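REVIEWER CHECKLIST
Item 1: Sequence provided? yes
Item 2: Single chain? yes
Item 3: Sequence as submitted:
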Amino acid sequence: MNLDHPVLSSLLPVALLILIGFVAGKAQLVRGESVRDLSNLVFLVLTQALLFRTMSSVHIEQLDFKPVLQYFLVGGALFVAMLWIYGGNSRASVLALASIFSNTLMIGVPLIGLAYGQEGQVLLFTLISLHALVLLSLATLVLELQVAQEEAALSGERRAIWRTVASAVRNAIIHPVPLPILMGLAYAQTGWGLHPVVERPLALLGSAFGPVALVLVGITLALTSIGQQMSLAIRLSLVKTVVHPMLMCAVGYGLGLRGLNLTVMTVVAALPIGANVFLFSQRYRKEEDSVTAGVAVSTAMAMVTVTVVMAVLPLLPA
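Item 4: Structure as written out by the authors:
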């Protein structure tokens, strides 16, 4: 086995971090009642630092958004389809997000860099600059609307639709994910840059996000009855690592996307479920066990599917 292969060298560290967390959970080094606190630390501290720092250097006028817009077109369509398939409720929003949200940072950055060099990474970073903002904001808005409707149905109170929409939009913006992205993007346009006194702590916190989030997935996995979730985890993983890249490739090719643009967007679509979905499910307490199992299963499944995608894409006619 060639451990220097781009796919293996990117996916194996992710699998190892999940395994470390799993062992720590089984050994009860981290107790079950502490998982929520760790999740809050990652979601409310580490994620904030990572997103703000990433967006604080993004200059919109320098980016090529055509491949990225096509990526979001496919992702949005698949999100709506999976939302309908899973029942259109708040639970379905989390499962639909798991079907389209890729692990772009922990796996995508090293994989694309090793396989396609700096030019490929520029495309990836353009996508990353909007990935969480677009997809997590979409899921947050839909879920907040559904939660409001479900609460109204339970209480028996009829609420004006405009109030429900306004409340959902406010909650979607004043949220731990979109807010630091928007603030970082606004700050980037000033051209001031981050002073090292601020940038270094943010860099340290941001670099801790991926490892700690994946170890947390492993800990939660150790405390979860995987057997009961395996069927749904496999279905989620098949949609994420097989259906998503197939749709991306077909739609992108049909809309004129070619070469490296098509390759990078399709490979990213084939990546496993990102840890942000796990944190999203933890925050809203929806489908936590299913998403935890889905992250682990899709990471293992992606070792095969990403390899196949990378081998088949060069065979497409120009």
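Item 5: Key structural point noted by reviewer: The two ends are 32 Å apart (CA to CA).
Item 6: Recommendation: ____
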